[in-house]
Amino acid sequence: MSTFRTFESTDIVAGRIQKVSVGLFPGGASQFSSSFFTSSTQAQITGSSEFEPKSGLYYTDVYSEAPTSDTSEVLFSLTYGHDAASGSSDRDLSTSKIKPTQAVFTQYQNLILSPGDENFTFQSGSGANAETIDKIDFYAMNFASVRFKERLVNGRFQFSISGSNGIFTYVDESAGFSVTGSTSAKAQYNIVSGSLGTSTSAAVTFDPEGIGLIYPRLGLVILNPEKLAEIVGSELTPATGSTNGYALNQYKLYNALQGAITTNPMKAGNEESIPSRHYFVRVKNQEFNYSNNPTFSLQENEISNPNDEGKIRFTSFQNDPRAYITTVGLYDDNNELIAVAKMSQPVQKTFDTEALIKIRLSW
Amino acid sequence: MGYLDNSTITVNAVLTKKGREILAQRGSLNINSFALSDDEIDYRLYDPNHPQGSQYYDIALKNTPIFEPFSDESQVLKYKLVTLPAGSTAIPVISVGQETINVKSTFRGETILVPATNPTFNTKLGYTAILANKNAGTVIGEGLDSSVSATIPSFLGDVSSETAQVATGLRFRFIPNNSLSSTVNTTLTIIGNESGGSKTIDVTVNVIGS
Lengths: 363, 210
Known about the structure:
heterodimer; A: nine-stranded antiparallel sheet; 21 strands; B: five-stranded mixed sheet; three-stranded antiparallel sheet; 2 helices
């Protein structure tokens, strides 16, 4: 007589890891084609908050909707880095010396490059024609961690930028592999010209033009400003700062992305590994055929004879009881309720039936 | 010729608040047992005289919509399914030996309650006593190993549970509130922590002259 049943060792399957990938954009969408938004609080401001990291000197958050909307979400941040602090105001270079673009350059340098490597290196051409381009500045598109989870999914990233030379669309080079996903995972891929097809096999130009690099595990895209300006338009040439003003070059990239987004959607997916355990709940024919549910038996307020309290409500249930499982509770050795699983519909249990319920617990 | 249905029911479980807490503290869950419940089911809707025949006797039960899982571990699995010998005619019933507690607020003693379950049950995890209005007095539980820390289902009731006092044990002492200014009428519910059955008795603490 019991309300609990102990699992046997073979009932628990541990160590399962399930890879889950979904679209990166709000609602799990795999592409985004609405206008981008920025916050007015991340424009260049003056006063006591001028040098706050969130004030826009270092980076600009890009939102899915107007930031004043309750449903607005940060999609990614844009920034510009320069190892000699180009883009800072003259006043900053001589007086305040916070040098945001240099700070940004160094933090990405420390994050990505090997010690002693002073430049971001982009690949142009391939095979015998391959060249490397060292750069001391970059644009960065940094996806929010809540968006990219563990990594950006290989071969599912596409973005377009607009300039005076037209609209240009790029993907990560792994999009050209016949098998997409983490099976071919590398730490870094070139950004190449092309667009994702509707199938996993995409049409991609494999010849990188030195446009940029993508780091899927960091949710990070590094772009070469000089090459972008050459191909897309001179509007993307980073500016130097003015007497009192910072260049805020990330807005150049923002404007280029904004100019293309409504006609050329941005596409991306994220991926995460979810550890899970499977519990096989085996309900044998002799077990769990009665219920403590107060409607299963007669209650004190329904009887005239006190001896009838607890009697099973239906005579037929006394010979052939039927219980209906709606909930499974998983307990630890202290009988603490650790996890709960609900059936989609009640499962009938009788002395003539057994139930095998597989519970998947992920965390 | 059809195909046999050999499918296994696969359902996703969610961690309870307690489960997350334990995972954070211990880094593992140590799940080693399961229990089943039917909280949503109203067995009174079973109709052994259904005009369309025996296939429809339990149609109302099978069609019952089911709640999503709650993460509050005290609000699920309130009524557990139980394994009893075939031919059982009754479900374990909890009794406490008296139907009411009726004392004066000036009473300096205590009322001892020793719940029992027929047939024998709840010997390991004991009982939970819920005094609906803690202004009436104090309930003290005794007799359980302090290491027993089982999840106890609770009942929010129609009124705020903030006025309730909860204790666990194999037996209970009720001590009336000596500083009442007016008579308090409330209830004391004893729940079997293993069987899930319960017994509710009325509690009155009288203030003379009120």
